Amino acid sequence: MTDTPQRTRPLRVLAAMSGGVDSAVAAARAAEAGHDVTGVHLALSANPQSFRTGARGCCTIEDSRDARRAADVIGIPFYVWDLADRFREDVVEDFVAEYEAGRTPNPCLRCNEKIKFAALLDKALALGFDAVCTGHYAKVILREDGTRELHRASDLAKDQSYVLGVLDDRQLAHAMFPLGDTVTTKEEIRAEAERRGLAVAKKPDSHDICFIADGDTQGFLAKRLGKAEGDIVDESGAKVGTHEGAYGFTIGQRKGLRIGTPAPDGKPRYVLDISPVTNTVTVGPADSLDVGALTAIRPRWCGAAPTGPGAYTAQLRAHGDETEVTAELVGEELRVRFAEPVRGVAPGQAVVLYDGTRVVGSATIATTERATADVA
């Protein structure tokens, strides 16, 4: 097997430049490798000031200027492409709709699937580009039979393959991740950026949702969905409190419940279930969060779909640990059973399957099954 198939010959590469240090160094590495690189910044908000402000995100005027300055230093052409309408429809509105339905979405996965490797890639290919380059930490490996695989980055501490688990064969064939090939820490990336004269070398990373300007997800949803008072109940159905919108809660949440009635055993309570139909939030003890199995829908495979049941590891959050599972595709549903119970699994999250470091694929969690005593 060989890494990064794009290196077999010089390619026309469109480098998505967010204005951060990772994408700037990725573009610089692609250009240094001899590719014909053009930088592009995605304008994802019709009003950039309504998204994150300061050096925190990827959607501000400041970020577009940082990206342009980096492109100038690298010596590549640079453009700004307006994808605000597509982003609002495919990412922001989807995010709101998922929460309204009582699910917990990951907007970064949706952005990678619908924007960076769909809208952006389609436009790039139509303009004659061969690949889209981003600053994600992951690897594309070309096998001898010509197929491509998505793998974890060499630096597992920075690995971002989870949010790329939505990419299919066609998208992987045109994806380039220059930061995933070598064991490189973030400090080394910043040092490299400084050596290259890139002003973003010391720019802080963005961690929050880019389209929620103040980081207040509940406040953002309240403005979009309005207040909807409902009951907080325990597992027996007894009312223990009230809320102003079920969308403001996530499975496994402990803080901010504002329950006046203490639990009989005096222990903390967690969100166990969110019902948008009855506008009810159910809370209970931590051990009631244990999940033994799940069913996921809308599977997407980074290669051929698996046949029959198989043993894998699964990741349930962008920065979560792997856990051993058995998984089987039944019709259009992915059935996953955990070797050991896991907690805090919420419908709407993505489950990403791995075979070693290889990303097998991902699916959206639809339902969960509470762990029982016979789940080992």
Automatic annotation (TrEMBL):
Residues the record lists as binding ATP: 16-23, 42, 135
Subcellular location: Cytoplasm
Gene Ontology MF terms in the entry: ATP binding; tRNA binding; tRNA-uridine 2-sulfurtransferase activity
Annotated keywords: ATP-binding, Cytoplasm, Disulfide bond, Nucleotide-binding, RNA-binding, Transferase, tRNA processing, tRNA-binding
Catalytic activity annotation: S-sulfanyl-L-cysteinyl-[protein] + uridine(34) in tRNA + AH2 + ATP = 2-thiouridine(34) in tRNA + L-cysteinyl-[protein] + A + AMP + diphosphate + H(+)
Enzyme class at the top of the EC tree: transferase
Domain (tRNA-specific 2-thiouridylase MnmA-like central): residue spans on this chain: 219-284
EC number(s) reported in the record: 2.8.1.13
Residues annotated as domain tRNA-specific 2-thiouridylase MnmA-like C-terminal: 293-365
Biological process terms in GO annotation: tRNA wobble position uridine thiolation
Family annotation (Pfam families): tRNA_Me_trans, tRNA_Me_trans_C, tRNA_Me_trans_M
Predominant localisation class: cytoplasm
Active site (record annotation): 111, 210
GO cellular component, one term: cytoplasm
Region (Interaction with tRNA): 158-160
Site (Interaction with tRNA): 136, 349
Family to which the UniProt record says this protein belongs: Belongs to the MnmA/TRMU family.
Its job: Catalyzes the 2-thiolation of uridine at the wobble position (U34) of tRNA, leading to the formation of s(2)U34.
UniProt-listed HAMAP family: tRNA_thiouridyl_MnmA (MF_00144)
Protein name in the entry: tRNA-specific 2-thiouridylase MnmA
Provenance organism: Streptomyces gancidicus BKS 13-15
Designated gene of the protein: mnmA
